[in-house]
Amino acid sequence: MKITVLLENATPSSRFVAKHGLSLLLEANGARVLFDMGPDGSFLDNARTLGVDAVHVDCAVISHGHYDHGGGLRAYLEAGETAQVDAPIYVRRGAFAEHVSGTVEHHHDIGLDASLDACPRLVPTDDMRLLGRGMMLFSGVEGAWPRPSSNGRLLERRDAGLEPDPFVHEQSLLVHEGDRYLLVSGCSHAGILNIMDRAEALAGAPIDTVIAGFHLTAPSAGGVPDASSVREMARELARRPTRYATFHCTGLDAYSILRDELGERIRYLYTGSSVEL
């Protein structure tokens, strides 16, 4: 397996564009999967700089209905039209609903471009979708572990108006290659421990590697909302026989806390970096 970061919040290299968002290219079992598309077409520019093809993939996935993960959808569709690529793009039902950040009285839009919802390349997914080649999308995550406190300012419009987002539009990717299980999650709004528990129940085995944002930093606040809960979560992650790579919404302040507990078992992935398993 190989994961290449096409876009993330930061990069140590002036060759790449870094923006608040996420886009990954996953290669496993002979398949190539584009996982998230960042806020715009910058991930395509970075892919060209890296010399990798982010357009000719077997499928694409949008992890949830926020612009920093699916804002590049229009650019990807246009690139696919030019290249005559029609690979499916898996999007959870409800991803194109109105999603905002803030309060009911004062908020700003963070959703996907609703005008793209009817695109024929989009394939709506439910609680589980088998992709073949040892890959599965899943959602509907419950569990007793706390969800990120930074979810508190994230709202979704429903019949009664703007309400706290339950994140039923979030999905994660489970990959089985050889005797290894890999879990990929965009922001882990359902809580990374809950998502891991669900993935392990589906796999019937522990997860070997987690590649995920943990949503431990609130962008509007610019810091860790609750350092003590991050440390408690880190201790639970350390008790599991898993290695971790993280990025984006985890934030460097939270990452330093995770690193204190996990040591070499966790690493931070920047734009342009890659990891092979």
TrEMBL record:
Protein's organism: Collinsella ihumii
Protein name listed in UniProt: MBL fold metallo-hydrolase
Domain spans labelled Metallo-beta-lactamase: 21-91
PANTHER family, sorted: METALLO-BETA-LACTAMASE SUPERFAMILY PROTEIN (PTHR13754), METALLO-BETA-LACTAMASE SUPERFAMILY PROTEIN (AFU_ORTHOLOGUE AFUA_3G07630) (PTHR13754:SF13)
Pfam families named among the record's database cross-references: Lactamase_B
Domain of life: Bacteria
Gene Ontology MF terms in the entry: transferase activity
